[in-house]
Amino acid sequence: EVKTDPLAQIEKARVLQDSRCFDASSIDPKEVIPVMSKILYLINQGEELSQNESTEIFFRASKLYQSQHPHIRKMLYLLLKELSPKEGEVFMITSSLSRDVSTSDSPYYRASALRVMARILDPSLLIQMERFIKNSIVDNNDTVSSAAMIAGLKLCKSHPEVVRRWVTEVQEKLSSKNLNIHYHAMLLLFEMKKNDPLALSKFFEFMISSGFKNPLAQVQLLRFIRYSLKTIPFDKPALVSIEKYLCESLKRNQDMIVFEASKTLAEYALQLW
Predict the structure, then answer these.
(1) Inter-CA distances, 15 with 27, 28, 55, 77, 78, Å
(2) Checking phi first, is residue 211 left (phi over 0); if not, alpha (psi -120 to 50) or beta?
(3) Per-residue pLDDT of the chain (273 residues; tens, 9 = 90+)
(4) Cα separation, 221 vs 215, whole angstroms
(5) Alpha-carbon distance 115 to 88, whole Å?
(6) DSSP 8-state code for residue 175
(7) How many other CB atoms sit within 10 Å of the CB of residue 155?
(8) Which of 49, 91, 145, 229 could form a disulfide with 54 if both were Cys (CB 3.0 to 4.6 A apart)?
(9) How far, in whole angstroms, is CA 235 from its chain's centroid?
């Protein structure tokens, strides 16, 4: 017997019509969740939604915040991330997102709300939501803290001047024993400082002297050094420290660290030549 994909034959027009169930006064998970799954399927298959269609679904989906059903809420976060609401529409759910971030007992809800924020906030709303993200960076729950820093990485591309104000909170997380938290903190700090030669020199000095053991973070730091040597005019003490670290990295047990250090030294030698 040939198995068929139940989502393969869906049509966009039919799904848009079915999404009217989001407007129901009594939300039925058995009816709503399959429709949300179909919308996500269409989007991920490359089906383009017009601005009007996206707006229509966004308005309807925002009403699903009334439901406390955990599966609906999880699907809602995924759906809101994939839609592209206009700046004037985002305000409809910012209060709900901020409530999830600040008061929810579920780390999953808080982390998911932060991920949605990073995708949909416009500059004016980011100023209002900034304190929620900053507080989440230093949250005791690693899932929430990690999500906040990843949100910062995304927001750094569009609103760097806002994200740079979070440097104290991010630096605090460099001391975390959780390898993922430490790694995300390092990524975000580099993004904050990569265009400031003095700040970047201090960042590399701190990272090199801290003696961290995370192999993935060490590889990424070597990549940051390679990128920065091409773009930033470091002073002599900073270069001496970096060169010493590169040579020491050649002696590591992990092949990926030795490879990145070798590549960085080779490219740096070509620059000097």
Answers:
(1) 17, 16, 15, 19, 17
(2) left
(3) 555 666 667 888 999 999 999 988 889 999 999 999 999 999 998 888 888 888 889 889 888 988 889 999 999 999 998 887 776 777 778 888 888 998 888 999 999 999 998 888 877 788 888 999 999 999 999 999 999 999 999 999 888 899 999 999 999 999 899 999 999 999 999 999 999 999 999 999 999 998 888 899 999 999 999 999 999 999 999 999 999 999 999 999 999 999 999 999 999 988 877
(4) 10
(5) 19
(6) G
(7) 23
(8) 49
(9) 33
CA atoms of 246 and 229, how far apart (whole Å): 12
**What count of other Cβ atoms lies within 10 Å of the Cβ of residue 99?**
14
Retrieve residue 38's tokens: 């179909």
What CA–CA distance (Å, rounded) separates 99 from 104? 7
221: Cα separation from own chain's centroid: 19
Alpha helix stretches (DSSP H) within 28-166? 29-44, 51-62, 70-82, 91-103, 107-120, 123-137, 142-158, 160-163
Q: What is the rounded distance in angstroms from the CA atom of residue 49 to the CA atom of residue 41?
A: 12
Least Cα distance to 173 among 129, 128, 130, 217 occurs for 217
CB-CB neighbours of 150 under 10 Å: 17
pLDDT score recorded for residue 9: 76
The single residue listed with the structure tokens 């939501």 is 129
Give the residue from 69, 73, 117 showing the smallest Cα distance to 95. 117
Nearest to 98 by CA among 87, 88, 109, 89: 109
- Positive or negative: CA dihedral 72, 77, 78, 83: positive
Instruction: Enter the tokens of residue 217.
Output: 């973070």
Structure tokens at 202: 């201090």
